[in-house]
Every structure is written in C-alpha cells, then in structure tokens.
Specification:
By secondary structure, the chain is mainly alpha-helical. The chain has 5 helices and 2 strands. The protein has a two-stranded antiparallel sheet. The protein is extended, with a radius of gyration of 18 Å.
Length: 93
C-alpha cells in the first residue's frame, strides 16, 4: 500500500497461513515468502472486489493517514540507524 496524491493505492495483497511468516524480518522468512504465489495485481481484480476490500480496510482504520504515515515512519527509522561507516570507525578505534 502506498499513498499517492492523498489517496492510498493497493498494489497487491498476500495471504499467509502462518502469521509469523508474514511479519518475520529474517532472511529465511523473506526467502520463504519469495517462493509463494502472491496473487494477482490488485488493479486487475474486478472493480467490485477492489471497492469491497477498500471498504474493509476503511472500516478498520486503514486509510490515507495510515498510508502516508508508513513511508514517513520508515524514513524516520532509517535515519535512526547509524551509517555503516560510523559503526566501522567506532569499532576500529
């Protein structure tokens, strides 16, 4: 999901029978996810299906604000991670 011009855009939807696989941030979990079928592109689904899914998300508070927040938060978190060179310099001294 991304936010473009004030609207959130769904690119695709994935379903994982194992919740852990869907949220785990390890190389092994990433490798397993890559081997799964991720389904059709969202914009190729019937318009009625797209609208119902968007309504489902809206009812749960997933809206433009959330779509805007996610990349902003990711950028914030990335800025909190020290650069590799600063880590190497600190550990080398």
């Amino acid at each position: 999901m991304t936010c473009q011009e004030g609207n959130f855009v769904i690119e695709n939807i994935s379903f994982y029978e194992d919740t852990k696989l869907g949220v785990e941030l390890t190389a092994e979990a990433d490798w397993k996810r890559r081997g799964l079928y991720i389904g059709p592109q969202f914009d190729t689904l019937d318009v009625a299906v797209q609208e119902e899914f968007e309504r489902y998300l809206q009812e749960r508070g997933v809206n433009e604000s959330v779509a805007s927040f996610i990349p902003e938060y990711a950028t914030y978190k990335e800025q909190q991670v020290p650069s590799v060179s600063s880590i190497l310099t600190k550990n080398h001294n």
